[in-house]
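Per your request, structure below.
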């Protein structure tokens, strides 16, 4: 399916609601103002999560369904937790136990969930574009993309941007190095949109076989217009050079399950040239933030010492996952005049 054409059609605005949109499919059309709305809301949600009694009535009476066709720990659990803290009813539907195993189409599954009264469905699917297809067949139901194939993972992008904002404040002008399997990473794509919207300078690094061909062929510096001005993307397959003076280093998981064939000779070679380790990290800024969306192949794309070291913000990413998803659910489902938390 043509994801880009459908993305245009699905950028349906919904001015009655705080977020002003019906679905959250990717970050490609989010403005810095919209991102800031979610982050401010997440600040309030983080305060709720710091209380002894983690419960507020904001989404009482709302029904959230999670529909995961791929395994997940962080995303699925944090959406469930977010919904429950906001007093929504959360129903988890494992695809392996659903009627999709009997041949029911994704379109009919969507119609079924809507008919049963779901307000929002959070979907993860191995096929890029699946949440877009679902959104086309929704009337009242809203769709949140929890990761589709190698295409997008907008809520992980929000988590990562929020974590950067928490530690560095304004990300504008900061050097962000994303290293690893860029081609197969939905996280890298969604992060890229968000980082550019916030005015960051992004360097993509990794084996040439893991950098999208169109970027590699025009290797060098790109400028992308966005609503805040210009965001830059640089491609540098040499991580030792790319990491120089970095403010943020994001390591990506090797997506071995999404590679059609081996894209580098051995794991040992990958570690030698692209692993985020202490020696390489010493070339970045002194207060560099190390991030990883998880799950981690510890000892491959990142060493244990760095993953659990003083620069690591990986635990914060996981913790912030709940506050961000609470914020997103609330901004999406509550009318503008809704109760404050
Ligand atoms: N980062 C992420 O999506 O993790 P899970 O696969 O555990 O949800």
């Amino acid at each position: 399916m043509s994801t880009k054409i459908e993305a245009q059609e699905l950028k349906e605005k919904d001015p009655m609601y705080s977020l002003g949109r019906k679905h959250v499919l990717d970050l490609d059309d989010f403005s810095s103002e919209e991102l800031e709305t979610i982050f401010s809301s997440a600040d309030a949600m983080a305060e709720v999560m710091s209380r002894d009694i983690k419960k507020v009535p904001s989404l009482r009476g709302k029904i959230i369904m999670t529909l995961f066709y791929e395994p997940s720990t962080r995303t699925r659990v944090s959406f469930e937790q977010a919904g429950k803290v906001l007093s929504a009813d959360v129903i988890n539907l494992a695809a392996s136990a659903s009627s999709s195993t009997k041949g029911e189409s994704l379109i009919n599954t969507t119609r079924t969930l809507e008919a049963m009264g779901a307000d929002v469905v959070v979907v993860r699917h191995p096929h890029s574009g699946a949440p877009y297809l679902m959104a086309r067949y929704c009337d009242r139901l809203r769709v949140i993309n929890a990761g589709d194939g190698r295409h997008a993972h907008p809520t992980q992008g929000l988590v990562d941007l929020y974590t950067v904002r928490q530690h560095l404040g304004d990300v504008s002008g900061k050097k962000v190095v994303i290293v690893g399997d860029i081609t197969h990473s939905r996280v890298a794509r969604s992060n890229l949109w968000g980082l550019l919207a916030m005015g960051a300078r992004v360097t993509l690094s990794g084996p040439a076989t893991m950098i999208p061909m169109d970027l590699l062929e025009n290797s060098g510096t790109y400028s992308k217009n966005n609503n805040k001005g210009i965001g830059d993307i640089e491609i540098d397959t040499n991580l030792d050079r790319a990491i120089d003076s970095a403010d943020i280093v994001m390591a990506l998981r090797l997506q071995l399950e999404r590679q059609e064939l081996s894209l580098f000779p051995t794991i040992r070679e990958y570690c030698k040239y692209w692993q985020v380790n202490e020696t390489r990290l010493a070339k970045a800024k002194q207060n560099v933030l190390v991030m990883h969306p998880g799950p981690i192949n510890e000892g491959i794309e990142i060493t244990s010492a760095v993953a659990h070291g003083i620069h690591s913000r990986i635990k914060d990413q996981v913790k912030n996952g709940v506050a961000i998803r609470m914020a997103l659910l609330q901004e999406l489902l509550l009318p503008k005049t809704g109760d404050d938390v």
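The chain has two domains: 3-149+319-333, 155-310.

Regards,
D.
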